[in-house]
Description:
8-stranded antiparallel β-barrel; 4-stranded antiparallel sheet; mainly beta; 247 residues
Amino acid sequence: MENSMRTRTVLTRASLLALATSLVGIPVQAADLGRAPIYYKAPPIEPFNPWMIRLRVLGVLPDTEGSSVSVAGVPSLSSPSSWLSISDQVIPELDITYFFTRNVAAELILGVTSHHISGNGALTGLDIGKAWLLPPTLTLQYHFTDFGALKPYIGAGINYTAFFNQSAANTSLAGLAVTDLRISNQFGAAVQFGFDYMLDRHWGLNFDVKKLWLRPEYSATVNNAIAVTGRANIDPWLVSGGVTYKF
Length: 247
């Protein structure tokens, strides 16, 4: 009996010792499984800035085919035997773009051009005059963002051209001289396509082409007596290239 109790005491002590040993060994076994993962702080997300500006060299290339000329009392000088020719022009141009999302933006271009107007056909050689144009154009664009540094876009919108500082040439040709010139301000449609090639997060290069449908009415006076009226189909191509800055 005494031996049995002694044996139980020894077994109980052995069981307690084994339990204590197993509990002490838990951290050691966990440490052997590998190091705990190291978590790094996520890089900050740069805020989205919606503004972009471009400074470009802009070529204004009028397409005057289909312009109408009506000379009171002189049918031989009226369309289709006569039409207008409007000079090309190259100017600096600034545009401002605002992004509503990373893909959808609105662009406003600002520039002023001066053009020389002359006659063609039966009016070839007749100096008609000059006019300055202020043609702000607003387009809504879609920018494609799946081509890396290359950012192509398309757009469509509206143009309003104001004509100012208009002056008749008052230069005689075969006894004819334009002595007065008036061109009406005009709304027109616009479409465009182009791309930015971004050199880094802020700076890039831009190429852009726009087509405007601009057909203002005009009136003129020849020799202070003969009335001339018609429609000038200016319909210019605007071809530009320059530098982009994204804020």
